[in-house]
C-alpha cells in the first residue's frame, strides 16, 4: 500500500513530502503523482524524483463522476491507500470521498476557517491580519471544511512584503506537511 499525491501547480509540497519520506524511509512510499493540468511544473519534479505520474484531464470526461471514476481506477491499480492533496485545485467529489473516507488530506495556507479557497495568502496579507498560518485537514465535501489535523500560526510583521510572507508560509508548509503525513500514514 502506498501514497498518491494530487497536485495542480509547481509541486513544492509534493517534493518536500517525497524527500522526507525517502530520508526517513517511510514504510509506505509516495508511489504516484496525479495532476489535472497539462504542463504543471510538478510533472518535472516527479520526473526528476522518479515518481510515477499521471495526467488525468477533467476536460476529457463528461462529468465529475466519470473523471473521478477514471482516477479511482488508477488508484486501485496502484494499490493507493492515502491521497495527499498538495495544491490540487479541485474539490474532491463523492466517488473519491466514499472510497477514501478519512484518508484524503489537504494543506491550506491560512488558519482555517479564515481565508477559505484560492489566494488565501494574498487575502490574509491584504486584509490585513497580524497572524495567518498553515492548516492541515481531512477532506470532506466542502471547500476547506474538513476536520483540522494541525495548524501553525505565521505572524505578518510590519516589514513583511507579500513575497516574504509567502516564503514564511511555504517554509512552515514544507516542514509541517511531511511530518503530519508521516504520522498519519505510519500510525505514529
3D structure, described in words:
The mean pLDDT is 96. Strand 1, helix 1 and strand 2 (30-35) form a beta-alpha-beta unit. The chain has a single domain, classed as 3-Layer(aba) Sandwich (Rossmann fold), CATH 3.40.50. Strands 3-2-1-4-5-6-7 form a 7-stranded mixed β-sheet, sandwiched between helices. It is of the alpha/beta class and 188 residues long. Helix 1 (12-23) runs parallel beside helix 2 and helix 1 packs across helix 6 (162-186). The protein contains 6 helices and 7 strands.
Number of strands: 7
Strand order of the largest sheet: 3-2-1-4-5-6-7
Q: What's the structural domain tally?
A: 1
Q: Specify the structural class.
A: alpha/beta
**Residue share in β-strands:** 15-25%
Instruction: Please give the count of helices.
Output: 6
Key descriptive features of the protein:
single chain; 6 helices; 7 strands; seven-stranded mixed sheet; Rossmann fold; 188 residues; alpha/beta
In short:
This protein has 188 residues and is an alpha/beta fold. Helix content is 38%, strand content 22%. It has helices at 12-23, 42-49, 64-77, 94-99, 120-126, 162-186; strands spanning 2-6, 30-35, 53-55, 80-85, 104-108, 131-138, 148-155.
Helix-strand layout with pairing:
Layout: E1 2-6, H1 12-23, E2 30-35, H2 42-49, E3 53-55, H3 64-77, E4 80-85, H4 94-99, E5 104-108, H5 120-126, E6 131-138, E7 148-155, H6 162-186
Parallel strand pairs: 1-2, 1-4, 2-3, 4-5
Antiparallel strand pairs: 5-6, 6-7
